[in-house]
Prior knowledge:
32% of the residues lie in helices and 27% in strands. By secondary structure, it is α/β, with parallel strands linked by helices.
Amino acid sequence: xxxxxxxxxxxxxxxxxxxxxxxRPELSGKEEQTRAAIKKDLQALGITEIAECTGCxxxxxxxxxxxPGKTVALRADIDALPVFEQxxxxxxxxTDGIMHACGHDNHIAMLLGAAAILQELRTQxxxxxxxxxxxxxxxxxxxDQMVAEGMMDGVDAAYGVHIWGTLDAPxxxxxxxxxxxxxxTFTIRVEGSSAHGAAPHLGIDAITVxxxxxxxxxxxxxxxxxxxxxxxxxxxxxxxGSRFNVICNEVVMEGTIRTFSMGTEVxxxxxxxxASTAETFGARAELQYRYMTLPVINSDEQLLRxxxxxxxxxxxxxxxxxxxxxxxxxxxxxxCVAGVPYVFGLVGSRNEATGCTYTNHHxxxxxxxxxxxxxxxxxxxxxxxxxxx
Length: 389
């Protein structure tokens, strides 16, 4: 039985596992029950070489081939989001306010499906497949911990995918070049001084200072950044003020930077703008800046060829999709920070005919489940072909 036939054989199993994990989401850093269920599922498949992280709820399992060879890692992230689900699905989240709105339940299911396929083919493998179930992707901390605990030790190449709500099913995209941006986060604290709202000259209004600061920061994007270099600066929260007739003495803003730049120039420009704007109005300001993830860039020609060939070999060239560069982020490439080559793809989940039209992170996000066994098959085919080289 070949990989395509095996994936069809396990299609119902993969959908069942997706629904199981979708109903039982856990937030970043709290995936204890998710990991326990994944371990149980792996053991039921006959996979018993399993290692668990101690500093997080990560897990790595190995399928060893009959012949020696390299080690290829297949990775799925497992955490959910603080979102109130409104899909109305019979297997909707059983925990109010937590949902697999990013689709990581599908990643778990596809990797379990690939594991089932590869376990059946293990006597034909020339090397080892390492299955990585990574926690805390949404917080940008899980990959670091997995690396720190040795889960990437000895890996020669890595493969990852993300199910995606703006790519039509059943397309799978392994485009070359810039795929997902890195994510930086920041907090700006602006300190002024209070006064009566009718006498603003006696205080320093942290709200108006913050407004000027926001405008100046956006000038950095539109006038200080090379237009061909993707850069997004978003301030997502702003808190300040105590009463309608009191000059606000403090504002706290939180936001994110999305870019493909690997340097510190964005942070340095922000620090200059924040400090100089505050000084102009007699206020004080503090910037806290955090580098969360690295960009995902498909640059390894050999792995790209293997991934694209896997799709074509199984389903034909019509199943190879293309999607533009995205400014969303993923911490997958942090698993490979030591120089492990990787390839990363998108699995299309959009299908208007079945109502799967919402995007990732939406409270009504759902997927076209028929794509899941294909995602599992492509991962398994990639692993087999890589090890066969």
